[in-house]
Amino acid sequence: MNPLDDASLLERPDEVELAPEPAPITPRAITLAVSTVLMALVVAGCALIPVPYAVTSPGPTRDTLGMEQGKPLIEVHGVPTYKSTGKLLLTTVSVAGGPGYPVGVGAAVEGWFDGARAVVPVEQMFAPTESRTQVDQRNQAAMISSQEDATVSALEELGYTVPTVLKVSDTMEGSGARDALKAGDVLVALDGAAMTSFSELSAAMDKVTPGDAVTVGFERDGVRQDVPVTTTDDGQGRALLGVLIDPVFQLPVDVKIQIEDIGGPSAGTMFALGIIDTLTPEDEANGVTVAGTGTMDLTGEVGPIGGIRQKLVAASRAHATWFLAPESNCNEVVGHVPDGLHVARISTLHEAREALVAIGEGKGDGLPTCS
Questions:
Q1: What is the C-alpha to C-alpha distance for residues 239 and 196, in angstroms, rounded to an integer?
Q2: What is the SS3 string spanning 149-194?
Q3: Angle of helix 268-279 relative to helix 349-360, nearest 10 degrees?
Q4: Tell me: the pLDDT tens digits for 9-32?
Q5: Beta bridge partners of residue 218, listed in sequence order
């Protein structure tokens, strides 16, 4: 008999094995099933309960030498520009938590057990009274300011003069400038030397001993005046004039930075390096993917940032082989560098530029690192 054509089984029900009847549902089984479902709902509900923490994770990277929304991220007009064969990645941190976007117990617990994330009290990242709109506005303002500072610093690093109107926006309480200057004044000289850029003013103040008096030349309502101002100490041995400056720049080169969905000031260093690479015929990156971070001020100083451990992971995931880290963040870098990623520490834009050139030339092994 062909076993594939055994129709007789269909005609002889006495030889067919019948499925056993299901056991009757007992009250105990019902109770257990209901308890299981309720427990699952309770656990799921607890996981969604907001907690006063923020979770930081590695965020996306952007190539400052690449494209953004179909246009160059750094766009320059009026002077020659040059292509690069490498990548300069700015790194970011994604933040869950804070006003408008609280995290639940589940996300916090998951973050605690994930080495690439960090869980911190929410007040370390956000002011208690800050709204989500205020956070977004603050981050956007910081991003715009960092782009402007990076542009000025990059152009001055390349030898350009960037004329600047040094307009006073406020004076510090308790400083010598409090009664001598006021908002709207324009600084034009210090001890008789003309001040035409922020870097000139900063360099001049570097030579002043805290507590010494300087003669400030300024214009008020179009009238030139001179006034003595006693400097103060910034707490680190540097003299402060005691004024907040809102500079207005006259850029000699038309530079536009186009980027969306990223806020904060920490991309300044990578913006500045991207501008330098774009404006110089040398191929500084030279085929290498270099990531990095750090604020950039108008004097070319690289400042510390938050979330550097997450940014190291982000750089590694983006296949970077080098990472430029602010010297002031080195204590957070040591012991947290992913395999295959090399770190060069930097404290100024000039050091960052020299490090980039060395990396592009294959001489990065001699660069100072975090230790």
A1: 20
A2: HHHHHHHHHCCCCCCEEEEEEEECCCCCCCCCCCCCCEEEEECCEE
A3: 60
A4: 334 444 444 455 555 666 666 666
A5: 187, 225
Q: Are 259 and 68 in contact (CB under 8 A)?
A: yes
Instruction: Encode pLDDT of 132-189 as tens digits.
Output: 898 889 899 999 999 999 999 999 999 999 999 999 999 999 999 999 999 999 999 9
* Residue from 340, 172, 359, 161 nearest 273 by CA: 359
Find where tokens 């020299």 sit.
354
**Closest C-alpha among 370, 357, 353 to residue 159:** 353
Predicted confidence (pLDDT) per residue in 221-278, tens digit? 999 999 999 999 998 899 999 999 999 999 999 999 999 888 999 999 999 999 999 9
Report CA 137 to chain centroid distance, whole Å.
Answer: 15
AA letter at 160 = Y
Burial 152-183 (b: 16+ CB within 10 A, else e): bbbbbbeeeebebbbbbeebeeebbbeebbee
Quote the pLDDT of residue 176. 93
CB within 8 Å of 360: residues ≥ 6 apart:
86, 283, 284, 285, 286, 287, 288
Question: What is the reported pLDDT for 343?
Answer: 98
- The 3-state secondary structure of 319-344 reads CCCEEEEEHHHHHHHCCCCCCCCEEE
Angstrom distance (rounded) from CA 269 to CA 146: 9
Asked if residues 318 and 92 have their Cβ atoms less than 8 Å apart, the reply is no
Q: Of the candidates 157, 229, 239, 251, which has an alpha carbon nearest to the alpha carbon of residue 203?
A: 239
Contact 54, 98 (CB under 8 A): yes
Q: List pLDDT tens digits, range 299-322.
A: 999 999 999 999 999 999 999 999
C-alpha–C-alpha distance, residues 176 and 213, integer Å: 9
